[in-house]
Amino acid sequence: MEQSNRKWWVLVTVSLAVFMAMLDITIVNVALPDIQKNFSSSFSSLQWVLNAYTLVYAAMLLPVSKLGDIIGRKKVFLLGLGIFVVGSLTSGLAGNDVWLNIFRGLQGIGGAAMMSLSLTIVTASFPEKQRGLALGIWSSVVGLAISGGPLIGGALVDSFGWRSIFLVNIPFGVLAIVLGIVFIQESNRNRNEKIDVLGFIFSTAAIFTLVLALIQKETHEAYSWTNWHVLSLFVASAALFIAFIVTERTVKHPMIQLSIFKNRSFNGANIAAFVLGAGLYGGFTYLTILMQNYMGYSAFETGVKMLLISGFTIILGPLAGIISGKIGNRWLISGALFIGAIGILAIRHMIKAPFEWGYLLPGFILLGISNALVNPPIANAAMSSVKKQQVGMASGILNVFRQVGISFGVVMLGIKLTEGYNHSLDQHIAEIHNADPELKNQMLELFHKAGAFAGSQMFDSKQAEAFKQMPAFDDFKRIVFNAFNAGIQDVDLLIAILLLIGALASALLIRKKRDSV
Questions:
Q1: How crowded is the C-beta side of 326, counted as CA atoms within 13 Å?
Q2: Is there a contact between 317 and 136 (Cβ–Cβ < 8 Å)?
Q3: Per the database record, which ranges form the Major facilitator superfamily (MFS) profile domain (predicted)?
Q4: How far, in Å, are 419, 445, 475 from residue 425 at the CA level?
Q5: What residue spans define the domains of the chain?
Q6: pTM score > 0.85 for this model?
Q7: Burial 445-468 (b: 16+ CB within 10 A, else e)
Q8: How far is Cα 366 from Cα 351, in angstroms, rounded to an integer?
Q9: What's the average model confidence in pLDDT over 152-164?
Q10: Distance between CA atoms of 327 and 343, rounded to whole angstroms?
């Protein structure tokens, strides 16, 4: 087959793999109620259906990138695909929540290999003139998978049950393996390169403990940042990162050449990837909660609404890759993040209880444009700013920043939501005059315990039946909805600040594109 045709089939192959890897980060959310019902799981165990994949995925991004450089990117990519297919099959057949969590971790290993090496394979397969377009398509697939998860997951769960969200990966995974065997060419291996065992251990453990610390804070609302469950993991992560840096400075064949961080453009791209993950992708979690828990949309309906954000990537993503080659990555990244900040501030300005779709629509359009325009130049800026032998590790580092950013964003935005919600509750329940103080204290405790995520559900639960006829019922409901509105406005403000920081950092750090690949 001609090389010109082969490279497009390579792009199809890696795009299919990347779509599955990123989709499995978000698709599980809508299946959790069915999984909990099937296994009678506790809430903490249920959360690990999500976290097991994310944790292992983040920790393995760097090691698999380096392994690809040593033994061949095609081999590691196909091995990752195989592991992912096996993990999907076993997850779909799991007999209890413990085994499901273990098999989700197995999926995470495969997903990391697919995601990290796909960017390197695309970069190596396309000439500089077409690379922007190819990376634009690759980035569009990433954005579509992240924001399309609720829609696809909702459709599968409603039609075939929760196991289908895992089993559906099998035919597509097998197809990707066959395409990869046929079309992907093996990279040139550095036969003198050795596996940096200490670097592998320290980097994997450092990222693992960092993400685990964020997960601990996310899943235990009562934990403060200084709680030993959280603080000890952060301290361990910092110590492991220091050990990693010392190791990389002394070993003959380091896992990461630390000189890569002297590159301003590369640093700018990573900062942009981090704030994009923390702000936009982390924010998707809370937009979903708003629409499902407070606006009454089903999982499928929520996914349809989220398509307004992801749909722009289909058209604008490839176009953004072409534009970045003409005007440069710096201004496209900076401008796209600025558009995203304006979009989220528009939502903050318009939103109020009772919530309506019209309050979100203008902001969703701007967020969709931002999401579509920003991913391609971030990938392009990172990959085009490093030397040819560094592209594998650059891909791994970029994906780590994006994934840790998502984990960081989910935690920090969740904290802001809870703080705003609780503060508003405390302030306004005291203002209710047609309820006695004891009842107000009971309701306040009940709503605090339910939290911002489930506060609205208290009015549709069996517990609500006992006090629906009370004069203060409508006042309590209004206050809870207004409290969530106060929290979501705080979330929106933090998202805007993160995106603006990324826009400024991109403008200051990223230089004119220099093709050194």
A1: 6
A2: yes
A3: 10-514
A4: 10, 10, 12
A5: 1-190, 196-252, 420-488
A6: no
A7: eebbebebbebbebbeeeeeeeee
A8: 15
A9: 85
A10: 23
- The residue with tokens 């085009």 is 384
CA distance 391 to 426: 52
pLDDT, position 52: 85
Q: DSSP string spanning 326-390?
A: HH-HHHHHHHHHHHHHHHHHHHHHH--SSP-HHHHHHHHHHHHHHHHHHHHHHHHHHHHTS-GGG
Determine the Cα–Cα distance for residues 370 and 316; give it in Å rounded to an integer. 10
pLDDT value at residue 516: 43
A 10 A CB-CB count for 315 gives 11
Are the beta carbons of 199 and 248 closer than 8 angstroms? yes
Burial 29-65 (b: 16+ CB within 10 A, else e): bbbbeebbebbebeeebbbbbbbbbbbbbbbbbbbbb
Number of Cβ within a 10 Å radius of residue 304: 15
CA nearest to 21, candidates 107, 143, 117, 140: 107
Is the domain covering 1-190 a CATH 3.90.1150.10 domain?
Answer: no
Q: Which of 229, 92, 211, 190 is nearest to 392 (CA)?
A: 190
Task: Give the C-alpha separation, 116 to 275, whole Å.
Answer: 19
pLDDT tens digits for 213-262? 988 887 777 788 888 989 999 999 999 999 999 998 888 878 888 888 88
Measured CA to CA, the distance from residue 458 to residue 447 in angstroms comes to 8
For residue 181, give both structure tokens: 């065997």
